[in-house]
Design a protein that fits this description.
Helix content of chain A: under 10%
Largest sheet of chain B: 6 strands, mixed
Shape of chain B: globular
Distance between the termini of chain A: 37 Å
Strand content of chain A: over 45%
Radius of gyration of chain A: 13 Å
Number of strands of chain B: 11
Largest sheet of chain A: 7 strands, mixed
Number of helices of chain A: 0
Shape of chain A: globular
Order of helices and strands of chain A: EEEEEEEEEEE
Number of strands of chain A: 11
Number of helices of chain B: 0
Strand content of chain B: over 45%
Helix content of chain B: under 10%
Structural class of chain A: mainly beta
Oligomer: heterodimer
């Protein structure tokens, strides 16, 4: 069974631009969560999507948004990029909404210059 | 607010040694605890998941224990190998809102180096 895939793997953007990251969960998994990982803050929860609805949200500004499609694939969007948004963005899928075992993708490395 | 602490931040051991990684959390009302491994620049690989009602889980050379009352978990690695070198993270699932709105809170990780 294929794992979680994320595209693109690397991205360089300029301050003020916006970016869209994509995540395809493991086949059959219905829940997708997004995390931001930085050296200073570690791994922080962004949001969780299940059945095309955001079910849970972390403490990030409204510039961070996402959506989920009917095939469970998810996208995350960051608008008006700031230097501090440079991070590894990880997507995780699980079978269902809630505290099920999470399986992570390889991440998208975003660099904002 | 749930806080997860991992000690030590870094650990270097010779090959073949048995070792223990520690994870502590401040809110004992967790649903489960999960241990992950992360290789440099890569995503996370799930190692073990312990439900709050369980005391330990084992997979191969790995054994994870959970003591909810004291807010502690340990990951025991037997007969360490150079391939075990990675960052090990623990994460707890907690819901303060009830229902199914759980969040994973991660520790900062322990960087393990196993020297040949």
């Amino acid at each position: 069974k294929a794992g979680v895939t994320q595209t693109p793997r690397y991205l360089i953007k300029t301050r003020g631009q916006q970016v869209t990251l994509s995540c395809s969960p493991i086949s059959g998994h219905r829940s997708v969560s997004w995390y931001q990982q930085t050296p200073g803050q570690g791994l922080q929860f962004l949001f969780e999507y299940f059945s095309e609805t955001q079910r849970n949200k972390g403490n990030f500004p409204g510039r961070f948004s996402g959506r989920q499609f009917s095939n469970s694939r998810s996208e995350m969007n960051v608008s008006t990029l700031e230097l501090g948004d440079s991070a590894l963005y990880l997507c995780a899928s699980s079978l269902w909404q809630g505290p099920y075992e999470q399986y992570f993708g390889p991440g998208t490395r975003l660099t904002v210059t | 607010k749930q806080e997860v602490t991992q000690i030590p931040a870094a650990l270097s051991v010779p090959e073949g040694e048995n070792l223990v990684l520690n994870c502590s959390f401040t809110d004992s009302a967790i649903y489960n605890l999960q241990w992950f491994r992360q290789d440099p620049g890569k995503g996370l690989t799930s190692l073990l998941l312990i439900q709050s009602s369980q005391r330990e889980q084992t997979s191969g050379r790995l054994n994870a224990s959970l003591d909810k009352s004291s807010g502690r978990s340990t990951l025991y690695i037997a007969a360490s190998q150079p391939g075990d070198s990675a960052t090990y993270l623990c994460a707890v699932a907690l819901s303060r809102e009830g229902g199914s709105n759980y969040k994973l809170t991660f520790g900062k990780g322990t960087l393990l180096t196993v020297n040949p």
